[in-house]
Specification:
Blueprint lengths: L1 E5 H12 L3 E7 L2 E12 L3 E17 L2 E7 L3 H17 L5 E3 L5 E4 L7 H6 E9 L2 E8 L2
Antiparallel strand pairs: 1-9, 2-3, 3-4, 4-5, 5-7, 6-7, 8-9
């Protein structure tokens, strides 16, 4: 079975759940681009905004874990994201996201409270993207 979620619906879900406005754009079958405007208040200068755009590449789905990589298209941008991610993982109690030694990210869906009931009933086989649509291939657990 395949769940087809339009990207614009995913943006609305993110907005409702996080109160953040992001942009999503499918790049290819395994890559989605996420954009977010970051605003920082600097002394003497005031507010400074910068749009950050990151490609997330899904490598595989194993059980309830999604393994992915990220790329900003620039080495300096990737290093900034790597540092921010390290800081987040060190200072956060969440077990939803972890980082492998090779820099890959694992998203542990079983750690997401809202996913518990769903994951008891279905197995996610793969996640891919197609023309502004997120495709989640799953099968019922028997």
């Amino acid at each position: 079975m395949v769940l087809r979620l339009p990207v614009n619906e995913a943006v609305e879900i993110i907005k409702v759940k996080t109160y953040k406005l992001v942009s999503l754009r499918t790049v290819n079958a395994h890559t989605i681009n996420i954009g977010y405007e970051v605003s920082v208040k600097l002394p003497l200068i005031g507010n400074k905004s910068k749009n950050i755009s990151i490609d997330f590449i899904i490598d595989k789905v194993v059980d309830t874990d999604i393994y992915l990589r990220y790329s900003t298209g620039m080495a300096t941008g990737d290093n900034v994201i790597k540092a921010l991610l390290s800081y987040f993982l060190i200072t956060s109690d969440t077990k939803v996201v972890s980082r492998d030694v090779d820099g890959h990210i694992a998203v542990h869906l079983k750690e997401v409270k809202e996913m518990e009931n769903i994951l008891e009933k279905v197995k996610i086989n793969s996640i891919s993207f197609e023309q502004d649509t997120i495709l989640v291939d799953f099968s019922p657990k028997i």
